Amino acid sequence: MSASFSRIAPLACAMLVLSAIVAGPATAERLWVEGAAQGGSVIKAQTLPDFIDLAAKLGPTVVNVSTEAAAENAKGGSEEEKEVDPYHEFMPYHQFAEPFEPMPRHAQSLGSGFIINKAGYVVTNEHVIEDAKEIRVTVRNGHQYKARLIGRDPKSDIALIKIDANHDFAAAPLGNSDDLRVGEWVMAIGSPFGFDHSVTAGIVSATSRFIPGNYDDFIQTDASINPGNSGGPLINLRGEVIGVNAAIYTRTGASMGIGFAIPINLLKDELDQLKTNGRITRGWLGVYVQNVTPEISESMGLEDARGALVADVVKTGPAKIAGIQRGDLVVSYDGKPITDSQELPLMVGRTPVGSTVKLKVIRKKEIKEVAVTITPSHEEELQKASITEEQTPFANNEDIRLGLSLKDLTPDLAREMGTRQSSGVVVSSIRPGSAAEKAGLHTKDIILEVNRHQVKDVSAFEREAQTSAGTSVLLLVQRDDITMFIPVKPAG
User: Among 263, 67, 282, which residue's Cα sits nearest to residue 155?
Assistant: First the structure.
């Protein structure tokens, strides 16, 4: 009996120890969060929505938009050259195809649109009707109408066209894109690859998405969208249009589940001007801004990497008149905080011309309020043609930590480069893989400041750069006719 007990006792003890290990102290704090079955929080599951009635109600308001452009206005090159923008993987939905008519040759564009009132006003993307000699709109019952252009805005990629008939049209109600929530169900209707009135569904993947080179902040959705969906509506479960489908992210030319739509509230801001004037006149501040990276934040002694950093101020612009300076960090516009620099142009663009707004800026670690009167945009007049970079064979001084060679900006060199700058330091070469290359410096960049101190020659550059041992060096750089701040983290 005792022998049996001696064999069982160790096993029992082991079981008790194992039980204690598994159960743990009753009062101990867990390293994880328990699921609902063990007492965690419960998120109510929803059944899949029924899109049948929604498609039936909104279908008649969606149209097919086709255009023809004269051969001299047609875009040349391969399909990839026409559709893929400089950012490689962001594509407008429109696609071109050769029509059957033998002569004269025309380029044909195919997209979508939606009717916004019973009189026959139709919204589509500007790139759908770009260079159009003729615009045709086909409604769901197959009737085709010749449309006339009312207004267009390439910056936001919105166009307003009109079709005329002796009857009223079904119109799509417009919703409030500011109320959108991530995870909300949405539906898209359009003409992908020419298959008109195709319906797809998904969710709002994100809001306020910024795509490089675009004016809008976009709604991102995983509703399947393809070439031909351009200009079509993105619809919520209440049957309201909350976005205009405008771009896709793709490696193949087809949908990869990442689509972008222009928020409908931006469209609402533009419709009256498009109808009355045929174009959009936006508010203008007259500054060039850039985002605040952690490196810039560190070099400026800021606590947070947020706001819009003023890289340059237009001489005759409202910001200059109000006293805004290069290097100011705009953290609030008309009482609204600015997290990302791209928010500022949108806020300014939506401000009525003639309005006076207050900007809160940080200047040399001091907070200041500046009142600025917004004027009409002069961006078109100020746009400059880009200059192709060239390697310049200068004999230079080299900053080993940053990995770049420098040259004093002499009067002769300034004339050769076509710049009005009379002093500064020219970047003549950049070592591959160096801190300067990683930071985005280019040859022919002119360095005007180091750590907010003006540098007139290489010697001054070296003195200022040496004071930044172990931390980022904040350079003010002029590239072509634009200045920008670039932080460089020295090697080692």
Answer: 282
Dmax (CA) of the chain: 109
Q: Of residues 66, 112, 156, 157, which has the active-site annotation?
A: 157
Half-sphere exposure of 190 (CA within 13 A, CB side): 36
CB-CB neighbours of 247 under 10 Å: 26
Minimal CA–CA distance to 445: which of 487, 476, 399? 476
One-letter amino acid of 245? N
Query: CA-CA distance, 107 to 358, in Å (whole number)?
Result: 48
CA distance 62 to 76: 30
Dihedral over Cα of 410, 413, 414, 415: its sign: positive
Structure tokens that stand for 5 in this block? 């007990």
Find the catalytic residue in 94, 112, 127, 299: 127
d(CA 225, CA 230) in angstroms, rounded, equals: 9
Q: Are 274 and 266 in contact (CB under 8 A)?
A: no
Taking only the tens of pLDDT, the chain with its 492 residues reads 555 445 545 545 454 444 445 555 555 688 887 776 655 556 666 677 889 999 999 999 999 999 987 555 544 443 333 333 333 333 443 332 333 234 333 446 689 999 999 999 999 999 999 888 999 999 999 999 999 999 999 889 999 999 999 999 999 999 999 999 999 999 999 998 888 899 999 999 999 888 766 777 899 999 988 888 999 999 999 999 999 998 777 666 666 788 899 999 999 999 999 999 999 988 889 888 888 888 888 877 777 788 899 988 888 889 999 999 988 999 999 999 998 888 898 899 888 899 999 999 998 888 999 999 999 876 555 443 222 333 333 334 677 678 788 888 888 888 888 888 888 899 988 877 678 888 888 888 999 988 888 888 888 888 787 766 556 788 889 888 788 888 887 755
Output DSSP code: residue 480. T
**Catalytic site residue from 156, 230, 341, 468:** 230
3-state secondary structure of 143: coil
Question: If you search the block for the tokens 């079904």, which residue do you land on?
Answer: 170
Q: Give the span between the Cα atoms of 85 and 127, in whole angstroms.
A: 13
Instruction: Establish whether 179 is a catalytic residue.
Output: no
Residue 157 among the catalytic residues: yes
Structure tokens of 8?
Answer: 């069982």
Residue 328 designated active-site: no
Q: pTM score, two decimals?
A: 0.67
- Residue 152, classified by CB atoms within 10 Å of its CB into exposed (0-12), middle (13-18) or buried (19+), is buried
E-strand spans in 197-307? Answer: 198-210, 217-221, 233-236, 241-249, 259-263, 283-284, 287-291
What is the Cα Rg of the chain in Å? Answer: 30
